[in-house]
What we know:
By secondary structure, this protein is α+β, with helices and mostly antiparallel strands. It folds into five domains: 2-19 and 49-159 and 196-280, Porin, CATH 2.40.160; 163-189, no CATH class; 408-534, no CATH class; 548-627 and 642-647, Alpha-Beta Plaits (2-Layer Sandwich), CATH 3.30.70; 652-739, Sporulation related repeat (Alpha-Beta Plaits, 2-Layer Sandwich). The chain has twelve helices and 28 strands. An eight-stranded antiparallel β-barrel has the order 1-2-3-4-5-9-10-11.
Amino acid sequence: MCKTLWRLSFVFLIGLLAGWVPARAQSPAAQADSTKKAKRPEPAPFVFKPTLGLGVGMFSYYGDLYERNLVNPQVSRIGYELSLSQPLTPWLRLGFYTLFGKLGANERLITRNLNFESQIRVGGVHFEYNFGHFIKPNKMIHPWVNVGFESFEFLTKTDLFDAQGRRYHYWSDGSIRNLDQSDPNSGNAIFLQRDYVYETDVRELNLDGFGKYPERSFAVPVGAGFLMHLDEKWDARLGVTFHFTRTDFIDGVTPQSASPRTGNARNDNYVMTAFSLRYNLTGPAEKLDEDGNDAFSDVDYYALDNSDYDGDGVIDLKDSCEGTPPGVAVNEKGCPLDNDADYTADFRDKEPESARGVITDENGITLTDSLILRRYQMYMDSTGMFAVTEVVRSGSQYKPVLAEKKVYQVMLGNYSSGVPNELLVKFLSITDIASNQQPDSSTTYTAGKYNDVLSAEKRRRAMVQQGYTDAKVVYRKPDGSFQVVDNVFVNYQQTTKPGDSLNVVQNPVTNPVTNPVTNPVTNPVTNPSMPIDSMEMNEIDPVTGQLVFRVQLGAFKQPLSPGVFSDVPDLVVIRTSDGLYKYMTGSFATFEQAAAHKAQMLVKGYKGAFIAAYKDGQRVPLTQAGATVVKSNTPSQPENLSENTAPSAEMKQLVTFKVQLGVFRNEPPADVKEKLSTLSGVETSTTPNGLVRYTIGRTASYEQIIALRNELKAKGFDDAFVIAFFQEQLIPVSEALELQK
């Protein structure tokens, strides 16, 4: 059998090498004819692309021990693999490898009890075929087969003695003792336990008279498995390789061994099942097209080497400043000229003749001491009073350009959960309270909007005096969060007194060329010499003492989408301590104004809207706030002053459900259009991104719309699903159900 496997492996190897030959033999006439038709392409040059592999697996023994001569894979020994391979063709790879690990077996039969463990070290070469003739190279998974030749050595030992040097004797009852079962003193034998330490060299025992035979041989490995491409650098490989050896001494048992140690007539073989990772040492693999050919075979690399992307006369390989604008003069390195050596290219230098050695800005303008100090103040500033973005030249003058002014507010608090009821009514007593959703899903409550920080600070101090001790001056950043204004009014109260002025601008901008102070920049909003106590307070609303009317639209257990109340002005959203989200609109000083606003809300469909009044941080009845009681035959109900008001039933009327049949950019496909024509009542609408939505049905009942959807699915509209609207604004179905509770 072994000789047959050797022959099959040899034939397989010859077949692989034969397939490597690029062309088969032809008759002279056929060769001449093919030469006329097409010129044979030049063979691709050989490129060394080594791949390093490292793997781990299990060595399984196949030899003279055991009834089936094969060790159970569950008790196989661990083995390791190190390989280096090189592709010869897209489908054939040459590999060199080394294996090391252990083989072993522990036989317990009625007739004999043998065991061994052998250190295995292998070095070999093989050819691996990846079925590239049938499978495209760009596939993720490839099967493979291989065959090769290897040399290996083994050191076989057996476990005959325990740690105290007592030999094992196996009795017919399955026990191990220190005396043979036939020994006259066997009655005094003691039980032993194997320590599985293989301490005895099988050759030195010379049990069969073979002497010190060589513990090395040759083998033919034949394997198969799968290769998975992880990326351009890494591959994962899984396979099984059977190693046909030329020796029968690995387990120390041969057909010539004395009975009962006699073995079979086959050589000792072994199997390795391994998983390995391969790493391409040369870089990414070549790019292949869909047909498995080099995707860059038609690239003109000579043209790429001499390309000049920016057209400045310096090729890209030597261009240190790629992307120079057209028409700009450059030096030998391709960089724009800088005649005054101020590190600003001449084509964008606004002061092309700067003095040598001076410090300039990004526009090449000389920075005097005053401008440097000014830039430092701009960098350290957090109030916006020094919001100068650049200095531009206008004729012979240099003027600062002010950045967009910040809008300052007074932050009263930030809450990730509900606002306590006693604080909620205080917030609603503030005429210009605003709720702001933050990126972290918390809510920040602010009051007022001011163009200068001094007015905001005045308002903050007034709020602190009324009990809002955590009030802070803030401005809103582009991401929606708030930035607290710090270190602007440090020791404000301690260092000022009536009649003092606050000098906002300490270092005005001076002319960078003529140097004299010509146009100092002052606070654009507040006169810097104005006494603090004489500042106008006309835009600062009092915190208390003023009656505030608001119109409440509803309170819900879950927050609603912004689109639900897109037609509502001055919306304030406050979450109560009981977990309800209150939606209120407007802030009015008189009941008549609030009533007019409520009427507008009723016209828009908010049937459950009602007016609430607040004063001095308390909710007050409308009868005490100037509302007139009109007598009617209907018994009047006392006003509910609770801030945890549940949503009114009228909100349900604003919710409608429809079944969406499809959304299309143009006309629906012909088959879909034909199916739609079988339905009556199909409506179309345009989505915000310009698509056409097809719907059917319109009802406030969720049960009815579900029944309609199921009916449509039975008719073949498998993609039909329910959508919801509030005031004709598309909202999630879950929010629609919440509004109907």
